[in-house]
Each structure stands twice: as C-alpha cells, then as structure tokens.
Write a structure and sequence with these properties.
mainly alpha, 8 helices
Length: about 180
Amino acid sequence: MKRSSAVNVAVGGLISAFSLVILLISGIFPYGTYALPLAAGVLLIPIFLEFGVKWSFLVYLSVSLLSLITVADKEAVVLYILLFGYYPFLKAYIERLKNKFLKYLLKLIVFNISAISAYYIMLFVFNMSSEEFRLFGVDLPLVFLAVGNLIFLVYDRCLSICVALYFKKYRAVLWRK
C-alpha cells in the first residue's frame, strides 16, 4: 500500500523519538547499555517493512545523530550506530541468500567487525579505560566477544520472530483504516 510522505515523516518521527528515549534511559538500567540499543533497533522493523530501506535509513541516521548529541551513555550510542540501528534492515538482505552457512557467516562477520570497531572507538575516541574489560587481572575482551557472538545469534533469531509477529498480529492493528 502506498502511503503519503506526510505519513512516512510522521511515523518516522515517532519511531525516532521512541528510539531516542530508549537510548536516553540506557544508562539508568543495569545492562541497559547493551540491551536498550537492541530495542531501539527493533523499532526500525515496521519502518523498513512498510516504507522501505530509504526511510529506515533516514530514521536510523536521525536517531544516530541526535543520540550522539543528547545521550550520556556513549557506549550504548556506539553500539546502536555500529550495529543495532542498521542491522534489522541489513538482516533482510542477508536472509535472501540461499546458503544457510553463508548467511550465518556473513551475520557473524558483520557482528564481529562492529563489536571490535565499537571496542576500539570506546577506548580511543571516548577514552574508556581498558581496565573495564578486566576481571581479577585477566583481560576479557575475547571472552566478551565470544559471548557476544552467542547473544547476537539469539538476537538475530528474535528479530525473525519479531518480523513474523509484526505481520501476524500488529500490522493489521497499526494500519487499519
């Protein structure tokens, strides 16, 4: 169904605002730094499915820029910008591949490049101490990365479930006339 640009802008603005609020409260909750950028990214699913990649990228870009300015938890912002903000619509393109092994390999490559980039940006741009990645004097970035890969695969599966739920339950409710 073709919608007017005014509807696209209004819905995009609402989703941007909700995503920004989610990122703003990320520092308040334990593990919010990691969980809430995921939630903010999930909000892009309806934008991508209803309006396409152009509008979802514009919402992602607006949330990314506004969060850099307003959100105190820069680690959550970096995670949103480098992975969880764009991944829901990148996933749609990766899912088109026929080879299941190649799908998962590509997803994990995207995650690992993003996670390693986020780590170095936090260390060198935002001056986070490398001590935060140590426990009892042992460096744990590789452990965090390994656990992150497992969590990312669960997240990827949850995104698929969210898309199915959107089509099955919420789409008709949100867009009824």
